Backbone:
């Protein structure tokens, strides 16, 4: 019997990432749609899964994982359904993957979008800091256009095949749009292509908070 797969979390762009990968691979997972800042991440049951008390998290049998990117990689590796292209297998391509992942997670997500979330939406907790918010928006745009120029963006963000980096990049751009960071046409076209994927559409449904 296969170990049970449980996805913990719904309602955020980070949880959407895991819902999307599960849909792309076609996995049958139980979903516990606990939401952010509802107290549901603070239960003893959930802290046994993720002591950091954050969503998303994934249980696979007795194994528990956190961090959206790590979970995407785990799922892709464990259920090898999504193909790799030859162009993605070289050492140079793998290093480019690492570069893109670092840019998306560290510069675009943590340094820019999460600063905006903390000091705008969550200002009551972390402090109102309009200058930090406006400079984080400028920083996002500068890092995006220099690290991932729109005119160099092909069908997918890495190589000629869909990958977990498309999931990270799409959810990052969606989040940027939601906080009114304007995106130039090539990024918007990329988003339209990704939004048309069946896996993305399915994930929007399963990621809803019940
Ligand atoms: N780097 C983590 C970030 C996870 C994270 O910060 N999750 C937030 C929601 S987006 C959370 O669970 N916060 C605690 C809470 O809302 O109770 C990841 O990518 O998975």
Residues:
């Amino acid at each position: 019997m296969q170990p049970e797969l449980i996805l913990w979390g719904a309602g955020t762009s980070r949880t959407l990432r895991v819902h999307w990968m599960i849909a792309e691979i076609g996995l049958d997972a139980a979903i516990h749609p606990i939401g952010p800042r509802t107290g549901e991440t603070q239960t003893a049951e959930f802290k046994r899964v993720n002591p950091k008390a954050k969503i998303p998290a994934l249980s696979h049998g007795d194994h528990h994982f956190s961090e959206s990117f790590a979970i995407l990689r785990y799922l892709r590796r464990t259920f090898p359904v999504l193909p790799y292209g030859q162009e993605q297998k070289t050492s140079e391509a793998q290093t480019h993957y690492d570069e893109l992942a670092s840019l998306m997670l560290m510069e675009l997500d943590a340094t820019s979008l999460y600063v905006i979330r903390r000091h705008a939406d969550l200002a009551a907790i972390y402090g109102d800091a309009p200058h930090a918010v406006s400079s984080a928006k400028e920083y996002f745009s500068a890092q995006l256009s220099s690290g991932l120029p729109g005119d160099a963006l092909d069908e997918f963000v890495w190589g000629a095949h869909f990958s977990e980096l498309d999931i990270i990049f799409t959810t990052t751009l969606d989040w940027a749009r939601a906080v009114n960071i304007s995106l130039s046409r090539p990024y918007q076209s990329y988003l339209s292509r990704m939004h048309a994927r069946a896996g993305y559409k399915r994930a929007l449904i399963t990621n809803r908070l019940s």
